[in-house]
Amino acid sequence: MSKKELVKEKIGKSAMQCFAKFGLDKTTLDDIAQAVGLNKASLYYYYKNKEDIFIEVALKEGEDFINSLQEATLLKEGIENRTAFYLESRFNYYKNVLNMNRVSVDTLNKILPRFFELYNALMKREKIFLTQLLEKAAKEEKLMMTDPENTASVLINLTDALKHSVEQQAILKGETEIDYTQSLQDIKFLVSLIFTGIRK
C-alpha cells in the first residue's frame, strides 16, 4: 500500500466508527478528523465530504463481505440451501449498509445515485457467482433449468426489491425503525417456490 492508501484506510476505519457511534447524518468532518488525528483541511486532500468516505468504505467492505460469503456458501450442502443462504446473508448485510443509525431521506438522496453506480459492478459479480452455482447443479442434473443466468438475475433482483419495498414503506410512514422480518420470510418462500418447480 502507498502512503496515501494507508492514510485513506485509516480515515475510512475512523469514519465508520464515527458513523456507527453518531449516525451518518450527525457525524461531521471535524469528528472524523479528530478520530483519525488529522485536521479538517487535510481530510479534503483525500475526500470531498463525509458521504464520499462512507460510499468508498462501504463498497470496499461490501466487496470483502461478498468474497467471504461466497466462500461460506460453497460449504453449504445442496443447491437450494446454498441459494437460500446466499440470498438471506447478502440481504442481512445490505440492509445494514445504509442504516447507519437511521440515515435521513436527504442524505440517502445525496448518496444513493453514486452508491448504486458503484454497487452495480459488485452486483454483476454476485449474479455471475449465483449463475455458476445454478449451472453446476443443472449439469449435475439436480435442476431442470434452461437459463441459469436469468434465474440468478431474477433471484437477486427480487430479493433486493423486497428490501427496497419495506424501506420505502417505512420512509413514507415516517417510521424510524424498519422491520425486515416479513421480507426475510418472503425470500425463503421465493426460493422454496422456485426450487419446487425446477428441482429434479
UniProtKB/TrEMBL annotation:
Record-level Gene Ontology MF annotations: DNA binding
Keywords: DNA-binding
Ranges of residues in domain HTH tetR-type: 5-65
Highest rank taxon of the organism: Bacteria
PROSITE patterns in the cross-refs: HTH_TETR_2
DNA-binding region: 28-47
Membrane spanning residue stretches: none
InterPro entries: Homeodomain-like_sf (IPR009057), HTH-type_Tx_Regulator (IPR050624), HTH_TetR (IPR001647)
Name assigned to this protein: Transcriptional regulator, TetR family
